[in-house]
Amino acid sequence: MAQKNQSKLRGAIVILAAVLVVAGLYTARIVFGGNIYSNSGQEKIRFAVETGSTVDNIIDYLEKDLNVKHPKGLKIAAKVLDLEHHIYPGLYELQNGMSAFEAVRLFRSGKRATVRLSITNARHYEEVLELVSEKLEAKYEDLIFLTNNRQFMDSLGFNKANTICLFLPDTYEFYWNTSARQFLERMAKEYSQFWTEKRRKKASNIGLTPQQVMTLASIVDQETRHNDEKPRIAGVYMNRLHGTATAGKLQADPTIKFALNDFEIKRVRKGHIERAKTSPYSTYEHKGLPPGPICLPSKAGIDAVLNYEHHGFYFFCAQPNYSGYSNFSTTFEQHRNYATAYQKWLNQEGF
Hints:
This protein has helices at residues 2-32, 55-65, 71-80, 100-109, 125-135, 140-147, 150-156, 180-194, 197-205, 210-223, 230-242, 253-260, 270-275, 299-306, 332-349; strands at residues 34-37, 44-49, 67-68, 90-95, 98-99, 114-119, 170-175, 315-318, 326-329. It is built from 15 helices and 9 strands. It is mainly alpha-helical. The strands form 4 sheets. The protein has a 3-stranded antiparallel β-sheet with strand order 3-1-5. The model is unreliable at 11-16 and 18-23 (pLDDT under 50). It folds into 3 domains: 23-109, Endolytic murein transglycosylase (Dna Ligase, domain 1, 2-Layer Sandwich); 114-194, no CATH class; 200-313, no CATH class.
């Protein structure tokens, strides 16, 4: 009887050992084997771990966004590597077919990928904030709240009208989990670095603040796409600001389009100017610069104003061709002749 019981015990041990081996092999396979795959087959997959995420959140989003073969492998790896106490929000670059262990180790390491954010064209700062909210974790509502917070914006040196000056056109690198406040403070830092002592001194020498330079630059940018012509156009507007030919009024057509919020206008006519009279952005009605930029000014436009061409021109008009360049005049009579030729050309071209 004793021998029979011993035989049964040995059999049970063998079976248990086999079960443990099988279980161990299965666990090893789901933890160390290929587990996370892209739905579209790309080799590199970017995955965002949101601020405040838990281990369960991360696994749930992985299952939702990707093809996870063994979610349980992720849970085991997360437990073994103590991911719960080492979660770093941000954007991670996963490899197609990577194991649960590799993925969890990556999350635990905090080795996050960066996001390249290109700020280019915009007419209103809200457009920039929309772009930011699409690329970074910073929410649009939070960005709007801060840019509308006078105390916060005052601390950065901007007001409602010149908020767009904060965003210099360029390509920047951010961690995806950048907050609204961190983004705006980073932009303020970039602004300060661009506005070097040399540039500030140049602005002061021509009687303008940095924001006023950017306001004029935005108008210059709207007048021509050619960087080599911008200093000459900037010179025309500086002449108008300080001269008598236009009584200190810029008379800039792009400001009328901005005042009417109609950027499809091909030719600014008397009717447009009349309708825009009540807007502070009408430079036909008001002397000096408008309250703020009419678009995101380019760095080339800013430097064109700071280094504007000194000349005697008060007027300019587009050439009657597709070159995009202008004819410049010292007298209104000369300007009127150029304008007539240009209007005739527009009519011939069907504009």
